[in-house]
Design goal:
The structure is a homodimer.
Chain A lengths: L5 H10 L7 H13 L2 H17 L1 E2 L6 E2 L16 E5 L2 H10 L5 E4 L18 H9 L4 E4 L5 H13 L6 E4 L15 H9 L4 H7 L2
Helix pairs in contact in A: 1-2
């Protein structure tokens, strides 16, 4: 790509560093910004750097927050004794969007993945254990990705907690709602068959 | 989308204003930035606002520039008497990428489009006419989009210049190189048939 302005080139190169954004898309975005008024571009530019420099992580659940505690942890109507363990901030948002959960979260900040050099010590597991004792948690919902790494992490945490009188559950797995059976992969379908549920659960779920 | 931090929400909303970027993509990009070090995010943020506030438009060809003249106009080895008229900065970059043109450009800043309220007076046509006289231009290459609006603009400019001893050409049209004939649209194929070229031109083009 040949640029007639180094300012333009610089902006395109910076935008193109973002994941999934190539040079052509970056150029399209920068030329769009060039057409906007200065205050609009300043708002975008400020929002990014302010987000990065001022954002905090909740001291209790490690979710992103504006203060010491995130909006969920500081909400007194959310149950402190029911914890949902997730990998990342994005998973918190995905579960919040379902509006099915009124407990609190614990963001691990990753999952155990020896190949990537991520061991249990790099995750927020110590703070999870102390929270479970301090808040007298009665149920721990393990909501990690249904992958080998996710399951390994779930088993690891469950084993660490085996001495505590605590109910540990995991998200149910099976064919996706609205999906066509013939397109479900074999493993999912076979597990879904083995773990088949009483018909009443379908009625409850469609409420 | 439910955010646990207003800083995060703000950044996502600003990114999602960019064309072709939805909320989900914006969240993915912002969470990526959150993982980067502060200086890296500052570099991106600075590049955007500096680009918008400091960029200039070439006083001769209206291309983006760092100075009064763009890199192309200030390059003495480029022919000043051969002008390529394009709609936008992006078209300059597309033609520059072909490395086939050693003249200079003139960026109209749009094309005549009555439906969008864009008349000839909103385009950089007056400066084009004065450049043609001042630089004793011998050839004007009209490289506008092959659409009704593009053709209208080409005809309008050609008519304005009909009194001058000037060669006016336009980009050739036809089936795209490497494309399959059966997928070419009827109009393109029929025009391409009518404007068929001597076989020698194929040999020259494949040099």
């Amino acid at each position: 790509m040949i640029f007639s302005s180094s300012l333009l080139e610089n902006a395109v190169n910076e935008i193109a560093k973002l994941p999934g954004i190539g040079k052509k898309t970056a150029l399209r975005l920068v030329l769009h910004l060039l057409k906007q008024e200065v205050p609009q571009v300043a708002t975008l530019s400020d929002a990014l750097i302010k987000m990065r420099t001022n954002i905090k992580f909740c001291s209790r659940c490690h979710n992103v927050a504006d203060d010491t505690l995130c909006k969920i942890c500081s909400n007194h109507s959310r149950r402190k004794n029911q914890l949902c363990v997730v990998e990342s901030v994005r998973d918190v948002m995905a579960i919040e969007a379902t509006q099915q959960f009124n407990g609190t979260y614990h963001v691990l900040g990753g999952i155990i993945s020896p190949l990537d050099g991520i061991g249990p010590d790099k995750l927020n597991i110590a703070s999870l254990l102390s929270r479970i004792v301090a808040d007298e948690v009665v149920e721990l919902i393990m909501a990690l990705s249904p992958t080998i790494e996710g399951d390994t992490t779930t088993y690891y945490i469950a084993k660490k907690l085996s001495h505590l009188p605590l109910k540990i559950t995991a998200l149910s797995r099976g064919v996706a709602f609205g999906g066509e059976l013939e397109y479900a992969d074999e493993l999912t379908l076979s597990r879904s068959f083995t773990n088949r549920l009483p018909i009443e659960s379908l009625v409850n779920n469609s409420d």
